[in-house]
Amino acid sequence: MSEPITYFDRYTKSLRQEKIYGDAALRWTYDTFLGKASLAAVVKRAWFSRWYGWRMNQAKTRSLIPPFIDEYELDAGEFRKSVDGFEHFNAFFSRELKPEARPVESAPNRAVFPADGRHLCVPDLNEATGLFVKGEQFDVARLIGDPKLTPQYEGGSLLLSRLCPVDYHRFHFPVAGTPGATRLINGPLYSVNPIALKQNIEILATNKRTITQLESPNVGEVLLIEVGATCVGSINQTYQPGSAVQKGDEKGYFEFGGSSTITIFPPNTIQFDDDLVKHSHNHVELYARMGDSLGTLISNP
Prior knowledge:
With 301 residues, the protein is an alpha+beta fold. The chain is built from nine helices and 16 strands. The chain has helices spanning 23-31, 33-43, 46-56, 65-71, 89-93, 140-144, 194-197, 203-206, 274-281, and strands spanning 6-9, 14-17, 110-112, 117-122, 157-163, 170-172, 178-179, 183-185, 209-216, 220-227, 235-237, 250-254, 259-265, 270-272, 285-288, 293-297. Strands 1, 2, 4, 5, 7, 8, 9, 10, 13 and 15 form a ten-stranded mixed beta sheet that branches.
């Protein structure tokens, strides 16, 4: 069986063990022969996630919401809607929060985390030593899927933000700028939990994903990527392409399941915060919330 998943909590300044939603099923799928067979035949398929999403859209799933809140100790006071105001579990999953629940770092030279979650950074993609495991780094060119675009980010800086099913599942802009249209790259829907990623980090570069270029006046074109996963077939964009956005503005949301976002800054344009760099170097994710500082911007000449 896989070892427990631990991460460093920025707020309590302590290592914590992740409480995994669907832990037994996830470990069976990725740690056993029969589970891996079902993964290849069923679980990674888009139709499986569509079916599960349909299930979570049924009114009867409202009964799952209160015990979920209790089990994972969520703060219902942050929700824009009352707990009994969600029409089904998926509506609860993609919930909006009150603006004051996620204040955005105001310093103009700071970039912010685009989502609640567990984060890892690669300060220089030319010197990457791995994310979850030393030496295990996915193919960035394959991730971007555009040979003309890839050279802009050689030697760039990458932030991987992993959202668990228990997290707030809306994603936001890490810096101000003007976003272009979103490009969809279809692919399978493997889990993005570390249990799966430690076995195959290339999942991040092959899963279904969406890619947006954000033209920032300070640092140039920042690449924003949303990665789907098992039971997350829907990546919904709520922003308007071509309209200027502010740091912390909503970009979109995921429907049910765990998922990830990836932010790639051009070379020499971001100095990640010390705690993020330190724990990433040790292959330990840093838990932080959307709107909090991820690093200091360096003007791109």
